[in-house]
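Quick one: structure for this chain?
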Amino acid sequence: MLVAHVRLNRIPHWHLRYDVRGASTFVAGVHKHHRSTTTHSTTAALRKTSTMPIPPALLTPDLLAPADGAYPQPRRGTLTGQSPPKVPTPTSVVEAAKRLAAWTAVDRHILPEHKVIGIGSGSTVPYVVERIVAQGKEVNKDRVFIPTGFQSKELIVKSQLLLGDVDQYPEIDVTIDGADEVDHDLNCIKGGGGCHLREKVLAEAADTFILVADYRKNSTVLGTTFPQGIPIEVVPFAYTKILQNLHLIGSPNASLRMAKSKAGPVVSDNGNFIIDAPFPEEIMKDPYTLLTRIKMLTGIVEVGLFCHMAKAAYFGNQDGSVTIKWHDGRIEKVAGNESAVED
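Got it. Here's what it folds into:
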């Protein structure tokens, strides 16, 4: 074994012991001066006998990466001057309805004074981010965007918006999110994409929580248009017992959500399992009571029922209009954004 001792400028009382087979460790000792000839001969010996040279970073500990200002420049190509990715133009009535809802909601609720914005998950959210980007760099330069999961994080980063975290910003001005189904009281089912824990955290943290969806999600009683059941995030080791309890309280068909392109169950961004629990209509008519009952079960992390949280819900319609349901019971129908229809 050949061992080279290299002086580290910033750690004068330690020697770096580097094994040519790849193992490197710090060895305590009193620093001794080495002649340059010794260093040169050692380096030459390494070149002759080793197939794995000492990494340059170890030889030059004072070398720093180029930086502009206090922080290094971002390495991702999407952040180095390229234009934000363009969301594909809708090619179906449903996609056009999603964009109508998203653009109208952003125009009404994401205002210049809003600086901390929560970005939800789902198929409607790319249109939300697209409309925010269209507000311009000058408006967005002082904003921070908080994601609810991997999808929204990638949308924020690729759109060159400033990414933040709810740990840093526990108070959010506005959160805009999609929904799987919304009833007449703005209670909704969320979690079809498995992000409802983080979505609920951002919904509760927001001064204003807005839902956006297409006309298919507009319902009177939850469970009508989304029959898969209520998404429930659970700790993995307790899922069998939780399934048994859900069967006993009125959901005999509750089941563990299985992955489509992976063997085994779906795993959330938080490392948990997801259970889908359909309940009969008479139980779903009182979603808040059901939410409370499910949450009392041990092992439940979060339930995909969002009750008494949204200020408004925007639904894009087939005819190019947008239906707006408000938390106080008002229902408004407005013409959709013209550019959203024309594109």
